[in-house]
Automatic annotation (TrEMBL), chain A:
Occurrences of domain Carboxyltransferase (ranges): 23-314
Biological source species: Bacillus badius
Entry-linked SMART domains: AHS2
Organism superkingdom: Bacteria
Name of the protein in question: Allophanate hydrolase 2 subunit 2
Keywords for this protein: ATP-binding, Hydrolase, Nucleotide-binding
TrEMBL record, chain B:
Domain Lipoyl-binding: 1-81
Magnesium among keywords: no
Gene3D superfamilies: 2.40.50.100
The protein's annotated pathway: Lipid metabolism; fatty acid biosynthesis
UniProt name for this protein: Biotin carboxyl carrier protein of acetyl-CoA carboxylase
Keywords from the UniProt entry: Biotin, Fatty acid biosynthesis, Fatty acid metabolism, Lipid biosynthesis, Lipid metabolism
Described function: This protein is a component of the acetyl coenzyme A carboxylase complex; first, biotin carboxylase catalyzes the carboxylation of the carrier protein and then the transcarboxylase transfers the carboxyl group to form malonyl-CoA.
Keyword Lipid biosynthesis: yes
Pfam families: Biotin_lipoyl
Domain of life (superkingdom): Bacteria
Length: 325, 83
């Protein structure tokens, strides 16, 4: 058992996600920074899909009531065991009675805590991920609260030596200014040429409305091309006839503030999606904090697929490196 | 100890508020006495309101940020002088 002394700002149980129900309106949820999430599971010898804790901005205080093997990855929210700083990106042993707490966030936004065996919560539609808007998955469908107890599963695949560390060049560094790559479309034709150009030349600031559902950005107002309202579309110029929203797609309701839809977002609707964040950069997006800057960079599909390949290669390198030890 | 100053930091990024609600009075005025654990403001992020509490007794000397400023994580919010 892991006892929750303080829950942190928003700590949820997440696995790889609730995959396969998008067409019935169920978003995947799941870890937002999949790279860090996967690295944490690999470091404790879990199946890659084992449920871990996703910690946002401010860490919880947790008390282990049994010996456990853990790993912390992601942004830098310096972890402490019984008040002593411990390294991230490394396999750690904790003893029954040990308390895990965190300092203020230094870089990035989200930390993943994997425990050998995984966090044991019921599978809902094939996943342990928390989807708070619907109140399903994870622990009772909600973020952790003080007094909660988390069961540790028994699904560890292999033993990893304590002190095993991810190679330095495979540990991401997070910045306050970010370039996020996007593929333009599906409804980019709705923006004026001038607004399209502004969209890619502005530094957008992440607002306080930035969570697992989506990130909202502040910059300047964008304009849409004048048109006659098509049958089935809303009256606002930012409306189109309903379509499925790709994960990572960016819409600009009324042209006011762009919103990037992420893991817990609505799966479709009637706003023009002007571009979509490439899958390899969703991990980086998840580590951007409120008040930090993002510049969007347009790339083509080939570049996006190449970035996905490189991402898969980095994960393969982590696994290979750990197996060699 | 008499002129010791403690800075109150925000552990999270977000929008800063000195009032519990738009139509309410501020939690605390500059120059007022404050006790450890008193709420001096709120930071809103991810549709949560996080209470910023004084960590020491004293006088809330000044706020270093304005109502509705967007804060970085770790930003200094106020100075409390011990007395």
């Amino acid at each position: 058992m892991i006892k929750v002394i303080q829950p942190g700002l928003q700590t949820t149980v997440q696995d790889y996600g609730r995959i396969g129900y998008y067409e019935v309106g169920m978003p995947p949820s799941g870890a937002m920074d999949k790279y860090s999430f996967t690295a944490a599971n690999v470091l404790v010898g879990n199946e890659e899909n084992a449920a871990a804790l996703e910690i946002t901005y401010m860490g919880p205080v947790l008390e282990f009531q049994q010996d456990a093997v853990i790993a912390l990855t992601g942004g830098e929210i310096p972890p402490k065991v019984n008040g002593e700083l411990v390294p991230m990106w490394e396999t750690l042993a904790v003893k029954a009675g040990d308390q895990l707490s965190f300092d203020f966030v230094k870089q990035g936004a989200r930390v993943y805590l994997a425990v050998a065996g995984g966090i044991d919560v019921p599978l809902i539609m094939g996943s342990r991920s928390t989807y708070t808007l619907c109140g399903i998955g994870g622990l009772e469908g909600r973020p952790l609260q003080a007094g909660d107890e988390l069961k540790i599963g028994s699904a560890a695949k292999q033993r990893v030596k304590i002190g095993t560390r991810i190679q330095e060049d495979l540990i991401p560094v997070f910045s306050k200014t970010n370039e996020i790559r996007v593929v333009v479309g599906l409804c980019s034709y709705r923006l004026t040429e001038e607004s399209k150009e502004r969209f890619f030349s502005l530094d957008w600031t992440v607002t306080a409305e930035a969570n697992r559902v989506g990130y909202r950005f502040k910059g300047e107002r964008l304009s849409f091309v004048e048109r006659e309202q098509p049958f089935g579309a809303g009256s606002n110029p930012s409306n189109v006839v309903d379509l499925g929203y790709p994960i990572g797609s960016i819409q600009v309701p009324d042209g006011v503030e762009p919103i990037a839809l992420l893991n817990d977002a609505v799966t479709g609707g009637g706003y023009a999606t002007i571009c979509t964040i490439i899958s390899a950069d969703l991990n980086k997006m998840a580590q951007v904090k409120t008040n930090e800057k993002v510049r969007f960079v347009a790339v083509d599909i080939e570049t996006a697929l190449q970035a996905r390949k490189e991402y898969a290669y980095k994960l393969a390198q982590i696994k290979q490196q750990l197996q060699l030890l | 100890m008499s002129d010791q100053k403690n800075k109150v930091l925000s552990p999270i990024p977000g929008v800063f508020y000195r009032k519990p609600a738009p139509d309410k009075e501020v939690f605390i005025h500059e120059g007022a006495a404050v006790k450890a654990g008193d709420v001096i403001g709120l930071v809103e992020v991810m549709k949560n309101f996080y209470e910023i509490k004084a960590e020491s007794d004293g006088v809330l000397e000044s706020f270093l940020v304005n109502e509705e400023d967007i804060l970085d994580a770790g930003q200094e919010i106020a100075v409390i002088s011990a007395r």
